[in-house]
## 1
Amino acid sequence: MIQITMPLNFLGSVYREIRQALVDMGEMFDLLEQPAEVKDKPGAPDLKVSGGAVRLEGVSFGYDPARPILHGIDVDVPAGQTVAIVGPSGSGKSTIGRLLFRFYDVSDGALTIDGQDVRDVTQESLHRSIGVVPQDTVLFNDTIRYNIAYGREGASFSEIEAAAKAARIHDFVVSLPEGYDTQVGERGLKLSGGEKQRVGIARTLLKNPPILLLDEATSALDTETERDIQESLKAMGKGRTVITIAHRLSTVADADRIVVLEDGVVTEEGRHDDLLARGGKYAAMWARQAAEEDSEEAA
Ligand code: ATP
C-alpha cells in the first residue's frame, strides 16, 4: 500500500504545482483553455536557482510562425533587480511572460534562468521558481485560509498568518466574524479588488519564489489602494528578481531598468530619468499618460 500511495502522493503534489502555476498564469493570461504545447526533455533536471538572473538572448517568437510577434529581442534581468517591460498594447509584453513560463518555446534564441535554458529543465521546477501576481486574483470558493494556503501545500497556520500580515490583509481578515474561516469567492463574501489582490500577494509570499512576474495593479483600484498595493509589491520584490509587465507607466518609475517594447522589438531601455532625458518614445508615452491623468482628475 505504501508503495502505491507514495508515487501517487508525489504525482499529486507535482500535479498541484503545475495546476497552481496554470491557475496563476491563467488568471494573468487567459491560458486555462490552452493545451500544453511543450514537454519536458526525457531526464530533464530541475532548475537550480542561485540568484534568479533572467536573460532573453535574441528571442524570436510567433504564436503562428507566419506572424512573428517578438523579433530577436535581448532582455537582461540581473539577479535581484527589477525590470519593467512597457510598450503599446499588443507589443508583446505578456508574450514574454508566457515564454518565461515556457508555455511556448521560442522559435529562435534562448531564454535562460541563471544560465539554464528553460527548455532543458523540468517545467514543474520552473513553475515553482516563479511567482505570478496577476491583475485580478481569482479566488476559490473556499475559506480565506485555503485561498492563501494555496500558495504552498502544507503551510502551517502561523505561516499563513505571517504571509497575510506581510500582505497587509491580516487585520481585515480577523475583523470578520469567522476570521480565516470566512468563505469567499462566488458563493461567499465578495472581496474588493484591493482585498483580492492582497490575498494573491499573501499566496505568492507563502510560495516564496526567487523570481516574480508582476502584472501591474489593475486600474479598477482607487489611487490610494493602488499606491498601497504597490508598496506591498515593492516590499515583496526585495531580494528577488522581478519582471513587471506594465500596461501603464505610473508604477515603473523606480524600476532598476525599463525596457520599451514596440512591435516585438526593444526600442529603448534604461532608467526612468535617463529615458525621460533622452526625449524618445518613453518620454512621449510618459507625457501622454500624465496629460491623460490630469484630465481624468480635472473631470
Ligand atoms: P497588452 O498591453 O494589451 O496586454 P501585450 O503587449 O501584453 O498587450 P501580447 O499579449 O504579448 O501583448 O500580444 C502580442 C501579440 O500577440 C498581439 O498581436 C496578440 O494578438 C498576439 N497574441 C497574443 N496571444 C495570442 C495567442 N494565444 N494566439 C495568437 N496570437 C496571440
## 2
Amino acid sequence: EFECSLPRPCEFSTVDGILLQKESCDIWDRIWNFQAKPDDLIIASYPKAGTTWTQEIVDLIQNEGDVEKSRRAPIALRQPFLEWIRPTTSGIDQVKAMPSPRTMKTHLPVQLLPPSFWEKNCKIIYVARNVKDNLVSYYHFQRMNKSLPDPGSWDEYFEAFLAGKVLWGSWYDHVKGWWRKKDSHPILYLFYEEMIQDRKREIRKVMEFLGKNTKEEILDKIVYNTSFDMMKTNPMTNYTNDKKLNHAISPFMRKGIIGDWKNQFTVAQNKKFNEDYEKKMADTSLSFCMEP
Ligand code: A3P
C-alpha cells in the first residue's frame, strides 16, 4: 500500500552550504538552539553508514539485552532523528517529550551539531563506513525513500556525491570533521567494517563507553539479536512500518556487506573515484577497509 510517485514533493535548502531538508532549514534556529542535557546520548553518522545497526545495539545495551523491551516501538520512535521534520512532529519535539536519559540520532556534520551538546559534554557515538559502499547504499536508499530527492541515474548520482551535492553534504568532510573532534570530546568512533568483522568486540566497546557491565551472557544475546538477518526480519528495525519507504524498489535492510560497490562501480568510475579520494583524504589519518 505504497503511494510512491515521482517527482517527489520534497524540497531542500542549505545551512552554511550543507544541503538539508527544507523544513529543517526553515526552523534552523530552533534546532541550533536545542538544549541538550548532560546524560543525553547521540548516535551520529553520515546517512547509510550503519546508523540503525548502531542504534539497535545501543538500545539493547540500555535494556540489558531484553529483546522484548527493545521491540517496544520502531527504532525511529525509540531514538528520535534530531533534525528531521515530519508533517506532524519534529525530531526536537520528540526528544523534548522523552524522559531522560535520552538517546537520539543525527546525520549533521560536526560543525552543525547544536553547541549545547558540546557545552554539556554529552557522550557521542559516531559510526563511519567506507565511502564506496556508503555511496552505493545511499543511492539505493534515495531510490526507495520518497522523503528524499530522486537520485536520478547511477551515473548522475555518482557525480553528485563526488561533488558533495547530496543531503547532509560531503561524506569526506563529514567523516574527517567528526574524526578530528574526537580529540577534544568524548566520541566513540566506530567503523561499519569492524562491526562486520567482529561484532562482539565492537559491542563490548560500546558497552564500555556507556559504562555498562559487560556480562558475557548479555553481550552474547545482543550479538545474536543484531545480525543482519535478525534485524531484517525485525519489524522494529527494518523500517517496514515507514510509509515513505518503498521496499519493493529496494529494501531498507538491503545487503549489509562490505564490497557491494564492486557490483555498481564501472572500472572507469572506480579509477576516477580513487584519484579524487586520494586528494580529499590526504589531510587525515583516517583509513577505511573497502574489501570484503
Ligand atoms: P546496505 O544498503 O549496504 O545493505 P543506515 O542505518 O545508516 O541507514 O544504514 C543502512 C545500511 O546498514 C544498509 O546497508 C543496511 O543493510 C545496513 N545494516 C543495517 N543493519 C545491519 C546489520 N545488522 N548488519 C549489517 N549491515 C546492516
## 3
Amino acid sequence: GSSSSIINANILQCLSKHSQTPIPIYTPNNSNYSSVFRSTINNLRFLSSTTLKPLLIITPLQESHVQAAVVCARKHGIQIKVRSGGHDYEGLSFISDVPFIIVDLFNLRSVSVNVTDRTAWVQSGATVSELYYRIGEKSKTLGFPAGVCTTVGVGGQFSGGGYGSMLRKYGLADDNVIDARIVDVHGRILNKETMGKDLFWAIRGGGGGSFGVVLSWKIKLVSVPPIVTLFTISKTLEQGATALVHRWTEVAPKLPHELWIRIIFTLANSTRKGEKTILASFNSMYLGDAEKLLTVMKERFPELGLERKDCTETSWLRSTLYFGNFPVQGSLNMLLNRTQPKNTFKSKSEYVTKPIPEIGLEGIWKRLLKEEKPLMIFTPYGGRMDEISESEIAFPHRNGTLFMIMYIVSWNEKGVETSKKHISWIRELYRYLAPYVSKCPRAAYVNYRDIDLGQSKNGTATYLQGKAWGRRYFKGNYERLVHVKSKFDPENFFRHEQSIPSIAHPW
Ligand code: FDA
C-alpha cells in the first residue's frame, strides 16, 4: 500500500545517507525480490501466500551496511528480522505480524583461518559446512565442533549453542567462541572487549535476534586425529531395537569422550507384509581408528555387535559429508553448496535426565507408527558437556543431561487442515513424553525453536510472559539474559515472537 511505499522511500533515503557504498536492496518491485526472500526459507510451512512479506530485504556487503540498516530501521521505527541461514524452525528470521524489513547476511560469509594461532574468524552468513571446508583447506588436524546439517547458518546456530558429532569431546560451538563482532542498537560495532562480559556471555547461547546483529565470530579450532571412524547400524523392532535403545540410554552418555553414538528413528517396512516397523539407526563418529573403536565397543557396548565391516575410516572433514547425507568419498565441493534440502515440518525437543524404561519406549513407537513421516533423534550428552557449568555461557543444558531428543513431523500435502493434523500428532507425543523427560522446567533447545512453548505478539513480552519459553530454553540463565537485554537494548528494538524481554521498557 502507499504507507509502505512511504516507509520504503524514507528508509531508502536514510540508507543512502548512511552508507558510502551502495547497499544491495530488494524492494517488492525488484524482479529478484521473491527469489531472494525464498532462497533460504528452510521450513516451507512459512512460505504461504498469506504471510506478511518484508517491505525490503537488505543484503549487506560490508559491516557498515549492517550498521546503516540498524540505524535507519530504528530511526523510522521499523522492525527488523535478521537472517543468516534461514533454518529457524518457526520462521522467526523472515516472518512477522507487523511491517518489517529483513537484514539478510548471506553475502557476509568470509572465513579466515589462522593455523598458527589455531583460531578463525567466521562471518555469520557462512554455513557451518563452508566453515568446515575452509578449515580443511588449511589443516588436516584442526576442526570445529558445530552442527551436522551442512546448510545451517553460523549466525543463528552460534547464537543458540550449536552441537554436532564432537559435542562429547569439545562441547558446543559456543564453548569455543572466543570473540565476536556485533552491531548494537545504536549501530556501533562492539567486540568482546568493548561489549563487556555480560553481553559476550548472552550472545553465546541466549538465542538469535535479541541483542543485536552478530557480524562475525572468532573461534578456537580444536584438534582432530588424521583418521576418524564412522558407522551406522540399523535395527528394527523385530531385531531387538527396544532393548538396544534402552541399553543405549544407560551407556551412550558415559562412553569415552571421543565416541558419539546418536540414534535416528524412522519408519521401515516390517517383515509382516503391509506393516510398518521402527528402524533405530545407531549413527556414530569416533575420533580415532577402527581398531581402537572396536576395542571400546567390545568393552562398553557389545550388545550393538559392531564389526570391522560396519566401519568407515576417513578424515574429520569428510565425516561432515557423511552427516550431511553425502557420499563420504564424494566431492568436498558439496560443502560449499548452499542449496538446502527443504521440507514442511513441525518439530520439538526434550532433555532426558534418567534412562527411559522399555515400556516408555514402546509408547513412543506406537505413536511414531501412527504418522507417515516421523523422525526422532536421540543425541547423547555427557563427556565435555558435563564439565562445563550451567552458567558458563547462556546455554544451560549440562551435567545431568543424558541425552537430547529432537522429534519432527514433515509432510508433502498442502492445506491448513493437513498442517493441523500433523501438528496435533506431535503435540500428543509431547504430552505422552512428559513423565520421561526433564521437569521444572521441562527443558528445550533454543535452536529447535518451538512456538508452542509460548510467544508474544511482535516481541512485546513482559518478564513473566517471556519466562514461559525463557526458563525452558535457558533455565536459571533466563534472569541474567533479561538483565543483559534491559541494559543493552532497553527499548526492545531487537525483538521477535520469542525474544528475551526488556524490563526497562514500560510495555
Ligand atoms: P536463521 O537465519 O533462521 O536464524 C535463526 C534465529 O537467529 C532467528 O531468530 C534470527 O533472527 C537470528 N539470527 C540469525 N542470524 C543472526 C545474527 N547474525 N545475529 C543475531 N541473530 C541472528 N542445530 C544444531 O545445533 N546442530 C545441528 O546439527 C542442527 N541441524 C539442523 C538441521 C536442520 C535441517 C535444521 C532446519 C536446523 C538444524 N539445527 C541444528 C538448528 C539450527 O542450529 C537453528 O535452526 C539455527 O538457529 C539456524 O541458524 P540460521 O542462521 O540458519 O537460521
## 4
Amino acid sequence: ASRPRVLSGIQPTAGSFHLGNYLGAVRQWVALQETHDAFYMVVDLHAITVPQDPAALRANTRLAVAQLLAAGLDPDRCTLFVQSHVPEHAQLGWVMNCLTGFGEASRMTQFKDKSSKQGSDRTTVGLFTYPVLQVADILLYQANQVPVGEDQRQHIELTRDLAERFNSRLGETFTLPEPYILKETGKIYDLQDPSVKMSKSASTPKGLVNLLDDPKVTAKKVRSAVTDTDTVIRFDPVDKPGVSNLLSISSTLTGKPVAELEKEYEGKMYGALKTDLAEQMVEFVTPFRSRTQGYLDDPETLDSILAKGAEKARAVAAETLAQAYDRIGF
Ligand code: ADP
Ligand code: NA
C-alpha cells in the first residue's frame, strides 16, 4: 500500500527558525518522512505578503533550506522544495480565491491579528488571501495530513471546506486533509510572556529563542524565563503557564515524559529546571548551527537538492492542476 501523504511549509522571512517552529512543526516533519510520502517547502510566495528586500529574501530562502536539512530532513526520504519553483501554487491559488467567500476569508483570526498590528494601509491583499494560497499548497499534493502548530488549525479547516466545495460543485478532485498537531508541542509560548505563543512577529527579543543565536544568548534567555511566584514544578498550563512551557520543551528535548520530569524536580526550585533546560538547549542548538553552516557552505549541493525537489513536486502538482482545470472548464 502507498504511504499517506503529508505536506507542510515554513516561511523564510525571519532568518533563523525559532523554537516554536522547530518543536511545533519541523520536528514532526523529520519524523514523518520515515512513515509518510512527505512534501516540505519553503514558502517564499507567502513571504512577500509583507515587503521583502530581494537579496535578503534570496539568502533567507537558502538559509531556511539549510536549517531544514540541519534539522534532519533527508532529500532522499522526502521532497524538499521552494514554493516559487513550482508555478502551480499560484495557479491553483487563483482558483481557490474564486471559491472563497469574502466573509469567510475575513474570519481568519491570524489575518485579523497580523493586520491589526500593521494598520490597513500597510496590509496587503496578499496577506488577506494568504490562507487561500495555503489551501492550494495543500490540495495540489492531495495531502492526507498537514503537520503544523496549533495556530494553523483554522487554515486547515478552510482547506477542507474549499476542497469539499470544489468537489461537490465540479466533481471529486481533492483529498480532504487533517491537521497533524501534537498536544505537547502544538503551541510553544514566549519565554517572557507565557500567555502568548512564541512568534517571530509578536515575541519580545528576550522571549523568542532563535535556533541560530549564539548558544550563550539562548542559555541566558532560558535561565531568565518568566515563571510564577509559587515554587512547585508541576505541569499546569492554566495556573502555571511558564513552568508548564519549560516542562513541555524539556520533555521533548530529552524524550522524558512530563510526569517523569515532575518527579525528578520534586522538592527542587525553578532554577534547577531552568539550568538543566539551558544546557539541553545548548546541546541541541550547537550542532544544529554548525550543520546549518555546513549546508550554506556548499551551495552546489543545496542547488541540486532544490532542483530535484522542484522536479518531484512539480510532477504531482501539475497532475492535480490539470485535473482541476479540466473540471473548471479551462
Ligand atoms: P511564525 O508563526 O513565527 O510567524 P511561521 O508562520 O513560519 O512562523 O510558522 C511555521 C510553522 O511553525 C507553522 O506550522 C506554525 O504553526 C509553527 N509555529 C509557529 N510558532 C509556533 C509556536 N509558538 N508553537 C508551535 N508551533 C509554532
Ligand atoms: Na505561523
